[in-house]
Structures are given as C-alpha cells and as structure tokens.
Write a structure and sequence with these properties.
mainly beta, nine-stranded antiparallel beta sheet, nine-stranded mixed beta sheet, 11 helices, 103 strands, globular, disordered N terminus, disordered C terminus, membrane
Length: about 1400
C-alpha cells in the first residue's frame, strides 16, 4: 500500500529532531568516495519490538549500496538499503521459523518511485518497524508494508553484524557470514551521510560512533566533472574505467576494464579468462531464500571470442525463471522465461563475412531484460522482443554461471555444451548488484559465493597456451622462480589443491647453512603452516583450523609490512609479528616451489617438511608476487624438470584406489590421479607392495654407524623400523652429536620398546608394546612434530603424547641397530641382534645399501649355480570352487612322510563355519586330527584313545575374523618338551593341553582330507570353499593338486576376487561385503547410493511451502517397536523445520527429528513422558550436507552427525515405557502434529488429518527408517507413499551393477544382520531426563564407561564440567589428547586454558 503525505502528521518526529539538534547540534557527516573499497562501519543496531533508523543523505550516483546489516546468518534476516536507478529501495527479511507453519518467510522489497534521490540534494530517510508494520519514508513520501507472518524478531545482538554505510568491505574475513551474501557485490556509493540515528545497546536511540571508515573525503568537490564533458566516466578514465573523486583529485575504478593504472591505460596481464571446455565461473544460492536478489531489470555485458560454433555463454535465474545466452551453429541466441509464461527467443547472426560469431574475433554482447522486454545488442546491432509476466513484480536471481554449469547441476533448459574460448569485461548487473566475473574468478575460495570449476587461465594472448596451473606428482621435483622483492614489505599469494597431508609448498631463503632470512609455506598433518624469519627470530604459524588436504582449491594470501603481517587462508585472517628488531627480509636467492635442491646446504630446522624430506604433491596455480603473476607455466616450460606437468591432474570424481592397485593387502591412498601404497602392515615393499621384503641379519659385531656430512638440528623425526628378534634387549636406532649429550634412542628392554629423547635441557623416556621378543615380525614408528609425539606398533598408534617443552636435537651420526653411546647405561649400550627389513629415518633408508649388496651377492651366486639342477615348478595353491570340493591323500602317503608331527599351510575364505581338514584313521583307537573354522575362528580337535581335546584360536580385536578373504597362516605342531599341541594362527599362539595319561608322540595316520567329507561320516561341519596353499606335512612340502590321490571340484591356483574389502573400499562409510568374485557395498546406512556408495541417494528438495512425503502403514500392519534406527542426510540454510516424524495411533506416542535454531533435535514419547534430546555440538543449517544416524534402543537414544563424536542419551527412570506403539505413518519434510514443539507453541489436535506443521526447506537424501527407503519408494511410485505439496526430486539412487547369483545370496545373508549399537562410537553420554537446552544440560553429566576413552572423561570430571554439548569436540579432541599428558605432569593450568 502506498500513500503520499504533505507536512501533516510529522510534527512529533520533527520535534524530536529539533530537540536533538538543540541539545547536540548537527552530527558530523561522513563523505564516501564510492571507490571499490570504500565503506564506513558503525556499531550494531539493537532491535526490539519497535525499531527505527533515520539519516540524511546526499548523492549524485544512481546505483549503489546505502546501508546493510544482518543477523549473522542466524535466521537469514537482513536490512539492505540501495539506490537503484536513482530511487531508494529497501530489501529486508524478519522473523524466524519457530511459529511459521505456512509459506516460508519471504524477502520483502519496498521501492519509492515518486522521488529521485540522485539529484545531489539532501534527503531525509527513515525506516520504522513495529511488529508486522514496516514503513519507509523519504522526505514527505511514505510507503508501508504489512507482513503476513507470526514472528518479527531480527536476531541476536551478539551475532548480528555491524551497520555498514556506502558499501561492504571487499575482504571477506571482515564479514565472513552474511544472510544475503550476493549483496557483497553491490556497487559502492559515493554519498554524504549525516545525522544517522538508531537504537544501540545499552545507550538507546542515539547517533552511533564511527568504528571504521575506508575511502572517505573531507570535501564534496567533483574532480570528475568537466565543462566540456558532462559524463564523469569519460573525463580522465580510459577503456571503460569509471571516475570517482577523492581528496587528492580524480581516480579511476578499473574493475570492469581490461586495463589498469591510474587512468586504466595499462593493459592487464590477467584481465581475460580462457575456457578449455571443463571450466565455469558462477554462483548458486538457491538454498538460501535470503540470498536471492530481486530487481526490475538485469543487464549482462561480455566480450568473447571462439572458434567453436555451439556452446553455453551465460545462464542465470531462479528455480522458476531463467535467462540464457548461448552460441548455436555460430549464431547468438538469447532466451528468457518467466514463471507462468512461455520462453522468448532472440536469434542474431553476424553481418560479415560469414554470418557466424565463431570467427576467432572479439565480439561484445549486451543483454538486458525487464519484466516487459528483452533486448540483445551484439557489436552494436540491436534486436528486442516483448515479454509478458503479469504474475511477477520482480525479477529474482539466485544463480548465474559463465561458460558452463557444474556437472551435478540438474538444469535441463541450459545448453550443456561447455564454452571453449576467451572472455573479458564480463559484468552482470542486477539493479545495484554488480558481479564482475573475471575479477571474482580469482577469489573463488573459502566463503566466497562465486566459485569456479576446472583450470581457468587468466590470459588469452595465445589461445593454445595452457592454463597457469601445475601438477607436482614427484615429491623430489621442484620449480625455481625469480626472487621475491620484499625487503620491507610485500605480498605473496597462490592457490593450492592436494590430498597429501605433508609437503613443502614454497621456500624462499638465503641458500647457506642455517639461513636466518627465509619464508616458507608447508603442509604438516593436512594443516598449512607459515614459517618466517627476518633475521632476529622465527615465527612458525598454523594458519588453518580445518584440514586442507581435501582435494579442493584453497587460496593463500601473505601480506607483510616491516615486522607485522597477516595470512589469509580461504577468507580467514591471522595476524603475526616477528620477534627481535630486524624488519627486513634480505634474500637474493630464488624461490623454490614443491621442494628444495638436495645439496649440501643445511636448511633451517623450523621448516619441518624439509627435515622430513617431504616434497609437495598436488596442484598449484596463480602464484603472484606483489600482485604480479609469476607465470609458473612459462617458467616450467623453459626448464627440463620432471615430475611436474601442466594443468591439474587431480579429480575428485575418479577413485584411483578402486579397485585396489596395491597387492598383498597394501593400503591405497590417492596422490593426484595416481596412488601410493602403504605396505607397512605387510611383508612386502615396492610401489604396489609386490616385492617381498629382504631381511638383513645383524649381530652387533659390525659397526653400523653413518656419519652425516653436516650437523643437523632436528625438531621433527619420523622413524620406521621393522624387526624380528628373540633377544629382550638391544638398541634399534641411535643418534649422536659430537661433544654434546643430544640423542634419540629407540631400544628394547625386557621385550618392551623404549624411546629416549635428550637435548641440552631435558630428557624423556617413553615405553610401549610388550612381549616383542617372540621372534615374530613387528613394525614400529616414532613420529615427533615439535612437542607432539606419536608412538606406533603393528598397525596402531599406541600413544599420543604432548611434550612439556620444545626439544631440538643435534645429530651428526646415526646408528642403525647399533649403539653410538657405548658408555650409556644398560641396555642403551647394547647393540641389536636379530633381523631387520626396514629402517628409515626422516626419509633416509639406512638398510638400502646393505640390501643392494646382498642382492648382488645373491645374483652372483645364482649365476654360479645355474645348470646344476632343474627344479620342477610346483603349484602352491588350489581353489575349492564350491563346498563339495575336496582333495584326499592316501593313508600310505601320509604314513610315509618323515619327521615329527607338523601341519602348516595358508588359507583364505569367506565361510564363517566350514571344515578345513580332517583325518580318518584305520582304527578307532588311532589318533585323529580335525581343523574347522567356526564363527570366524579356528577350532582344532585332537582325538586319542576315544577321548577328544580341542582348543580355539583367540578372538580377534576390533570385530575382525578369519573369514575375511585374506591369507592366514596356520601351524600345528607338538611341543617337544611337554607333548602338548600348539596352534599358531598368524601371530597368535594357543596351546592345547593334553591329559598326562594321553601324552604320546603324535603321528598322523589314515586318510587326510582337505575340504568336504566325501564319505558323509564323522560330524564335521559344512564343506570348505576358498583357497589353500603351501601345505607342509611334517618336514615335507606337498603339492595340493599333483600329490593328491583324489580330488573333486578344485582348481589350480587361487581364483580370488578381483576386488577386496579394504579401508575406504566403500565411500561415505559404506559397509564393505566381501564376495567370492568381487565386493559389494551396503549403502543403506550412508544416505548414498551406487556400487561404492559414491553417489547421492534419492534426494528431494522442499521449498519451504507446506509439503511433505509420507509413508502410510496398512491398518493391520502397524508396527510396534522397541528399537528404531534412522539414517539420512540433509542440506539447508534455514534454522527450523521437521526432517522426519513418526505418527502413532497410540494416544501419546510419537517420534520427531527436527531442526530448532539450526540444531538437530529428537523428541519422542513412548507412552510415559516426553524425551527431548538436542545435538548442540554444531549448528547444521550451514548450507552443507550432513549425514545423520540415529538409533533408539528402548528409551535410550544415540545421535551421530557426520564424523563427529556421537551423543548417547540414557534416561534415569527405570519405569519408562520402551515401545513406540502402533506406528501409522512416517513423514518427511513436515509433521502431522506439533508435539515436538514447546508446550506454549503446540497447536490443538482436532485439525484436519492432512494438515501439516513446521515445514522444512532444503534437501533431504537417502532416508532409511527401520529399513524402509522412503525416498526410493517415493521415486518408484509405491502405493504406500503419498505427498502433500510439490516436493522436487533432484537426484535418484543409482542402481547397483549386476553380480553372480552366488554373490547375491552371500550379500543378502551378510546384510541381513541387524544393526548393533556400538558403544565405542559414543563419546558423550548423558544420564539426565533432557539435554535440550543449555540450562537443562546442567543436570547432564558424563558417566565413565569402559567402552569410552577414560582419559577424556577424566578431564571433564577433573573440572566438574557439565555436559555442554556446545563443545566443539571434533576440533578440540586433539587438544584434549595432548592435554592428558600435561595433566599427568601436573600442568593443570595448561589444561584449563585449553
């Protein structure tokens, strides 16, 4: 509604203004230049039930940002005042979703058309809001709007943003979270503002104090105005630059120009974008209703050239309307569609010479659209077409893409042929919002709304030139760049992308021993570190809180001025200051990217990746020194460096580790588009773990001391040793420093591993492991990163320790299994005796030379003995193709085998219970032997004189078993001293104790069968299916195929599966099921689909309007359950809404999972009382996808969010009912009742049966409720599924590829196992009636449980801390781990600070 007023009705307001003037005088004004970085910042606007903001302003600019403030993204609320085509416009959003059950809260827009404001005259502007009434008054014109919603709150004063005038800061770290992020790109306004008034806390309504200003002026002189030229843009600025006035005269804004300089006269080196076919630039804020920009008109300007006739150029719009610009057969086609109308199309051909625009010449397009008209101008030629959109008042924009769209985007209207060519001067104006795609493409990281895909190049001088992107695939490779001229100040920036956790990205320092001037960037444990030293002290700064080795692009910006500086990583800024007095970075040597030359220079010990010899593997681009591109592609092409390639070979879609290329159960990890095999838990080595490790025997007699060329100072160490010994004492690794007591010693003492660390000020000893002198292979690792120490043994990290003080150890000699300190106290003076197959220290292999010498000797011996005898190749293994297969050895053959009783072989199978071998003696009183696998463990039975003795192999930890299709070694023999039988499975030993009266020398007699029992006698279990190899009976090796007297259904060799279950074989924590021929992934508990759970499951988008999908049980099938589980994922930016709800026919029973203020909640009633559980570890309405797993066991509940620690809720009352009775329907996206809401917000229950409440806005995927895949049923058209509203399917579950019938049966059997709640997954456990609010959490506490980490609980009990689920457990868990050691040492104060 719109009304125009004269002077009447305004006396009270002017009276207040007059009183303020008389009391305080006119508030000083602020004049902003309108420069690209100009703005002023004021304190937060404190909102209440009635709110007002007023100001006086004067401007001559027709488009720009006047004021912006928001609630920090809490509810998506904001106020945005802009000037659009000379008119004032207010966009705003208020309220929250707590009481909204109908349409979602919209963005409201008010524009005053009657008054132009760009007349360089003073105007008075007032915003007033009282409950549902919002008024915008300009001078004497008033426009008001009545909101149709229940809630009118704005936000929390603690989280609200400041008030910005004239524009928003371009640095995202100053305003990292915005409710309406596209408004960051609104044009900056040249404006004079005075008498700004609004409510502040606690002052009340008053004039705010200026907090910060950039680009302000002291006068209003228009330096851009000329007597001969009235247009300010043409006065001093060239090449489409725009002029603005500052204190020192005219300046040019060259953002839209492809030139730079004071007058935009210097051509930019990076002012163009080159698209190669896989690249795009754009944004999509469709999931955030507050982010969409509403306008009366939009305008696109771009200049392009290409030789390809068909491709997409530009695509923008919202979910119901779009604007599309493309090339088709050399012609330009512009199409426009609004909701409720047909598409309008303009087609334009070139005039000369070929009527085509794919002629490798630059062409300029201007495309303008309003609600009534679309106009296309190409190289000055104009065409237009009328449009009709009677239902729309505004054009809405929530996405825009240039060049192409992401592959996962489901849009069907767009031409999906990607653009190949060059673009420049790309500008997209949506009223006052201006998106400069070329400029923003270089800022597409972190919190930026604008993103990029592919490898964009920022120059089009040579279309065949590759992108300025390099891939480092060899850790020893490096690239040399010219020096960085940064004596007293400078800037350095780059983008990187990697999956490797460690590596040196950049080093720039003086190339001499222990340089004192240097700067470096490195990755350690997937975090980015800056190391800088100006000559008077080093700063080592961790710049990231989250791990960045995630395969995504990250941006790094270093700015330094004298001794101070800052590092910005993905819009997160960290300041630093170097110690001492030196303020200059004096370096004349080049920059090294990826690694450093391996020469005789001793590099600074503070650069840990150099000490560890960890080069960089990954991609890097856009290296800029003081703002100038280093042109790394050209630098690379001018060298002969190997291990580096042009472009970025890293793909997040390709899983190079599927199937696993590592042999012998090596663990595969990605490295660009290649892989690395971790062979540490195998007996093999090599790139694919294909080479059997060579063991070196050491006896301590020969000196194994390696003297280093130069003394090194070590702050980090990585020691890897694989050993086998029967000795209980001995030094495995030792270091020494001439004339000093510094040492690092790893030694055995009483069969325990020990680490001794000593420097000039301290010494420490740590122990781990036990019973290691068992003559079996063991592998240890010691990894120290400064004060963090990790100790590893046989596949597991045994200890994580935080040292009290930093330790720096000098090293000039290394002892490999040899003590270099003969005067040390025992046993640190004793040399190791035994076998070694690996000894690596900081990347140096100290056994390599010994192994090479041994290999040459072995090769020589082989040549000398060649021809002495011909050895027949014997097949080592056989496969039992089904459970009826067997091989049999006759009684005569078995009796003829010499030697004492001994059975040795290897096996692999998937059968949980089966017969492996047994003997059939000639007489009942003869000895018999039987070996079975029962429930994944081996059971050995020995029978003598009618009496049976049996034993079972130990239960394996971590739910492991022997039916895992991996090779396992079995040895059964009789102890010579006790005559007891020993069963040795892998490294586990079990003794079968025989009755003294029955102890005789064991000897195998009768027939020996491997596999099934063809005679059908005895009682053994099912026949065996799998593989058996390397059989030895007594002292004789037998060929299972050739030496058998009879066989059936067996084949030579082991025809195992092509793929095997290894860690991460199934993506997204899918359950890997090993099949006979391959593997299968059970994705039902992942919210994903596909052969490897790698793709999204069926996904449905809810737009916030009343809509739901629900599953209806038949009246005679309504279940009553004591256990339930829910698995799903969701993505939203809205704080409230129901995700899943179960409605019951029983009067009080219900179960609802919903969002409240961004936190995940589960409320349920089982007939006795309400249970309310809230997961407050993290706010989840952040626009990212989150996987939720919830399981109920009677009245207890467990909630798991992503990979975060789980929350377990156990009510105290034993009288609680435990059944969820007579479930009638399961709904997705809304609830059929309001029971989950607070009592005061609940609705009456006598409403219509189909009315729904608390609608959700966002996406939901892969919903699994007690085995019902609700969304899959919805997509497949099940008659049990019903809908309300119009939810949209955006993805459909991918069908699993076909497999054999036997594999299907095996998979069904293994997937049929019920879900078991794993207590080890629950880190937080509450024993209170409720964990909903912070106040209620005061009664929740952590109960120490044997299944949980007692050290973590000890810390919480130590400080009597209640269970505040607000702990950021995922990020501080390591700090708690490190703090445990401090507590044990008495450093309570340090723990308190953590």
């Amino acid at each position: 509604m719109r009304r125009k007023f004269d002077d009447t009705g305004q006396y009270s307001k002017w009276l207040i203004a007059l009183l303020i003037y008389l009391l305080f005088g006119v508030v000083d004004s602020i004049i902003l230049t309108g420069a690209p970085d100009s703005y002023s910042r004021y304190p937060k606007w404190a909102h209440s039930f009635e709110n007002s903001l007023s100001m006086e302003l004067k401007t001559r600019q027709s488009d720009g940002m006047l004021l912006y403030t928001d609630d920090g993204g809490t509810h998506g609320n904001f106020y945005s005042l802009t000037i659009v085509e000379g008119h004032i416009q207010l966009d705003f959003r208020l309220g929250d979703n707590s009481n909204e059950f109908g349409q979602r809260r919209p963005v409201n827009t008010i524009r005053i058309e009657e008054v132009r404001i760009d007349d360089d005259k003073w105007h008075t502007l007032t915003i007033f809001q009282s409950w549902e009434n919002v008024k915008l008054e300009l001078d004497y014109t008033l426009v008001f709007k009545i909101l149709n919603q229940r809630s009118f709150v704005f936000g929390n004063i603690l989280k609200n943003s400041d008030v910005f005038i004239g524009g928003l800061p371009p640095n995202m770290h100053m305003l990292p979270v915005m409710s309406s992020p596209l408004r960051r790109y609104t044009r900056h306004l040249a404006v004079n503002v005075r008498n700004l008034m609004y409510r502040q806390y606690p002052q009340g309504v008053t004039s705010p104090q200026l907090l910060e200003s950039v680009g302000t002026r002291t006068n209003e002189d228009d330096h851009c105005k000329s007597k001969s030229m009235s247009s300010r843009e043409q006065f001093v600025c060239l090449n489409d630059g725009e002029c603005y006035s500052a204190n020192d005269g005219p300046h040019c804004d060259c953002q839209f120009s492809d030139h730079d300089g004071r007058n935009c006269e210097i051509e930019k080196n990076d002012g163009e974008l080159t698209f190669g076919g896989d690249e795009w630039v754009g944004y999509d804020v469709s999931m955030n209703i507050s982010a969409a920009v509403r306008a009366k008109k939009e305008n696109l300007t771009l200049t392009f050239k290409t030789v390809h006739g068909t491709s997409m150029l530009f695509y923008a719009g919202d979910e119901k309307s779009y604007l599309h610009l493309m090339l088709q057969d050399g012609a330009i086609i512009a199409s426009s569609k609004f909701d409720g109308s047909d598409a309008r199309i303009i087609r334009m051909f070139n005039s000369f010479p070929s009527q085509r625009y794919d002629d490798d010449s630059w062409h300029t397009i201007v495309l303008e659209r309003s609600l009534q008209m679309m106009t296309l101008i190409v190289d000055g030629r104009r065409d237009e077409i009328r449009q009709y959109a009677p239902e729309l008042d505004w054009i809405s924009n929530s996405f825009a893409y240039l060049g192409s769209i992401p592959k996962h985007n489901p849009s069907k209207e767009v031409n999906r042929v990607s653009f190949r060519g060059c673009m420049k001067k790309v500008r997209y104006d949506v009223d006052a919002t201006r998106v400069l795609f070329v400029n923003l493409a270089d800022q597409s990281y972190g919190g930026s709304v604008v993103k990029t895909g592919g490898d964009l190049s920022y120059s089009c001088k040579n279309p065949s030139q590759r992108s300025d992107v390099l891939s480092f695939s060899d850790t020893s490779s490096y690239l040399t760049l010219p020096r960085w001229n940064s004596l007293s100040s400078g800037s350095l920036s780059f983008h990187f992308r990697t999956t490797s956790p460690d590596g040196l990205i950049l080093y720039h320092g003086v190339m001499q021993h222990n340089a004192t001037d240097y700067v470096a960037f490195e990755l350690i444990d997937s975090h980015l570190f800056l190391i800088i030293n100006l000559g008077s002290g080093v700063v080592r700064l961790q710049t990231t809180a989250m791990k960045v080795s995630d395969g995504e692009w990250h941006h790094v910006q270093l700015d330094r001025l004298s001794r101070t500086g800052s590092v910005i990583v993905d819009a997160i800024k960290i300041d630093f200051s170097t110690p001492g007095v030196s303020a200059n970075l004096i370096i004349d040597d080049p920059i090294f990217i990826g690694n450093v030359p391996n020469n005789s220079i001793v590099y600074p010990p503070s650069v840990w990746s150099i000490t560890l010899q960890k080069g960089y593997t990954g991609c890097i681009k856009n290296i800029r020194l003081n703002g100038v591109s280093a042109k790394i592609a050209q630098q690379f092409e001018s060298t002969n460096t190997t291990g580096i390639e042009l472009g970025c070979a890293l793909s997040n879609e390709l899983d190079i580790c599927e199937p696993n290329p590592c042999q012998n159960f090596g663990r595969c990890s990605r490295n660009l588009n290649s892989f690395e095999c971790d062979c540490s838990n195998t007996n093999f080595e090599g790139k694919r773990c294909e080479i059997e490790q060579t063991a070196v025997e050491v006896d301590g007699d020969e000196s194994k001391v390696h003297v280093l060329a130069h003394t090194k100072v070590s702050q980090v160490e990585h020691i890897q040793i694989r050993f086998r010994t029967s000795s209980t004492r001995g030094v495995l690794f030792d270091t020494g420093a001439n004339g000093k007591n510094d040492k690092i010693t790893v030694f055995l003492n009483d069969s325990l591993l020990n680490l001794f660390l000593q420097d000039s000020s301290s010494n420490n000893t740590f122990s781990w492991g036990k019973s290691l002198s068992d003559n079996h292979w063991h592998e240890l690792q010691v990894r120290r990163l400064g004060q963090k120490l990790l100790l590893y043994l046989d596949g597991f990290w045994s200890h994580s320790i935080y040292l009290q003080n930093p330790i720096s150890v000098e090293i000039d000699e290394v002892g490999a299994a040899y003590s270099v300190h003969p005067s040390s106290p025992p046993p640190r003076d004793e040399h190791f005796k035994g076998f070694l197959s690996k000894l690596i220290f900081n990347g140096n292999d100290y056994l390599a030379k010994t192994k090479r010498d041994s290999a040459q000797l072995s090769k020589s011996s082989s040549r000398e003995s060649k021809g002495q005898r011909n050895v027949k190749t014997r097949i080592a293994s056989i496969s039992f193709t089904n459970s009826t297969g067997y091989v049999a050895f006759s009684s005569d053959k078995i009796s003829s085998l010499a030697g004492s009783f001994r059975v040795q072989f290897k096996f692999q199978t998937l059968m949980r219970s089966a017969l492996i071998f047994f003997t059939l003696p000639k007489h009942d009183y003869d000895q018999s032997f039987r070996l079975q696998i029962m429930n994944g463990r081996l059971k050995y039975t020995y029978r003598i004189s009618g009496q049976e003795f049996h034993t079972t192999s130990p239960k394996l930890p971590y739910r492991q078993h022997l039916s895992d299709m991996r090779w396992h070694s079995v040895l059964i023999y009789q102890d010579e001293k006790t005559n007891d039988h020993v069963l040795l499975v892998d490294n586990s030993t079990t003794t079968l104790i025989i009755d003294k009266m029955k102890k005789v020398e064991s000897r195998m007699s009768g027939k020996l069968y491997f596999g099934s029992n063809p005679l059908g006698v005895s009682r053994p279990s099912n026949g065996y299916r799998g593989c058996i190899s390397t059989l030895r009976i007594n002292e004789n090796a037998l060929d299972l195929y050739e030496d058998a007297d009879s066989r059936m259904n067996v084949n030579r060799g082991c025809s195992g599966p092509i793929a095997r279950c290894v860690e991460d074989a199934c993506a997204n924590h899918g359950r890997c099921i090993q099949l006979w021929s391959s593997i299968r992934c059970d994705c039902s508990l992942t919210a994903h689909s596909g052969d490897r759970c790698q793709n999204p499951s069926t996904t449905v988008r809810f737009d916030g309007s009343p809509s739901a999908i629900f599953y209806e049980y038949a009246p005679n099938e309504r279940p009553t359950t004591s256990k339930d589980y829910f698995v799903f994922s969701f993505r939203t930016t809205q704080p409230n809404g129901v995700l899943i709800a179960i409605e019951c026919a029983a009067d009080q029973d219900y179960f609802t999972i919903f969002l409240n203020k961004g936190y995940l909640n589960a409320h349920y009633n089982l007939g006795s009382r309400d249970h309310t559980v809230s997961y407050h570890t993290r706010v989840l309405n952040d626009g990212f996808s989150h996987v939720i797993k919830i399981s109920r066991n009677e009245s207890s509940l467990t909630i798991q969010v992503d990979k975060l620690p789980a929350l377990r809720y156990r009510p105290k009352k034993a009288s609680d009912l435990v059944l969820l009775n007579m479930q009638t329907r399961i709904s997705i996206g809304a609830s059929f009742n309001t029971r989950h809401l607070e009592q005061r917000r609940r609705m009456l229950r006598h409403r219509r049966n189909t009315e729904i409440f608390d609608s959700y806005q966002g996406e939901v995927s892969g919903v699994n409720v007690n085995g019902l895949m609700i969304l899959d049923l919805y997509e497949n058209g099940s008659h049990r599924i019903h809908t309300i509203g119009a939810p949209q399917t955006t993805a459909v579950s991918e069908a699993v590829s076909n497999s054999s019938e036997e594999d299907d049966e095996l998979a069904e059997m293994m997937m049929a196992q019920s879900i078991e709640e794993n207590p080890n997954e629950a880190l937080i456990e509450s024993l209170a009636p409720s964990c909903l609010s912070l106040e209620e959490q005061q009664t929740c506490f952590i109960d120490t449980d044997d299944s949980t980490d007692s050290r973590f609980f000890f810390l919480l009990h130590l400080f009597h801390t209640p269970v505040s689920i607000y702990f950021r457990l995922a990020t501080v868990h390591l700090q708690f781990e490190e703090a445990v050691h401090k507590v044990s040492q008495g450093f309570i104060g340090s723990v308190l600070s953590v």
